[in-house]
Amino acid sequence: MAGVGAAAVRGLAARDSALIRVDAVWLAVEPLDMRSGTGAKARTGRLWVYVRDDRTSGDAAPPAVWFQYSPDRKGEHPVRHLKDFKGILQADAYAGYHPFYEGGEVVEAACWSHARRKMWDIHERQHKLAGTLAHQALQRIGVIFQIEAQIRGKTAQERWRARQERTQPALQELKAWLNATLAQVSAKSPMAMAIGYTLSNWTALTRFVDDGRIEAHNDAAERALRGVAIGRKNFLHLGSDGGGRSAAVIYTLVGSAKLCGVDPQAYLRHVLDRIADHPSNRLDELMPWAVAAQLGQGEHGGEQASQQAA
To answer: How far apart, in whole angstroms, are the C-alpha atoms of residue 78 and residue 97?
Structure first.
């Protein structure tokens, strides 16, 4: 049934890909178990998610999400997905993304949530004791997130100004502390590795300070993958690469509906009732933000890309 529904709305999901190719895109990837046939050996496929949501910088354009499936995690897949993209790409520091940045038309913006998570993992292993180096690092990184929370939804210019006045000094102090701490710990310690990750990606991590459109983190894409992680616990695995592609279509429509504040079940029912007779050159009329009023929902009041991950 899911495959039949995905086939019917595949063209509609493709419209999200066009909307994703804007000035700034968030990117993340999630593993999926694949198993074909009785007793077949499981293998791992990937769902790549691309998110456009500029509400955090005061833009009223409708948000959208686009999922794509691949049988592996090779960097060639996102490069193909975004082959015509020019702008800001916010993602983790995966080496497979490096080809994006070589030509200079795609600007790398890294994620402070990933840098913070490495410190948090150490903090947890140390039973969350106060005063440890990891705890001190988390407190200093926390200042960045506090400022971001206070300027969420402001215009890009207002965010730029606040970051120049408040975030820049905090980052300078943080970098000095990281360098001093790195000189005190063992080079092979978890703390040294966590600091090394942050310092080696410092330029991409601090790019948001000079551009109000950029976020300090990649949480929008990570949030879009939560539904995949939950679904994976229910369906356990997908039966084929075709199933992975169908899943990408459904996740695209559901994800965009949620971002726009539209109930996914009501939206899919609305689309499936109309898609067969709807002109293919007017698919924009069936996008979540276009039908929100008919469903009594929306106005882009859905999941905010600005929400800070827990």
So the answer is: 8
The phi, psi pair for 303, rounded to 5°, reads: -60, 125
Tokens standing for 38?
């009785």
Interval 251-296: pLDDT, tens: 999 999 999 999 999 999 999 999 989 998 898 999 999 999 898 8
Q: How many CA atoms lie within 13 A of 38 on its CB side?
A: 0
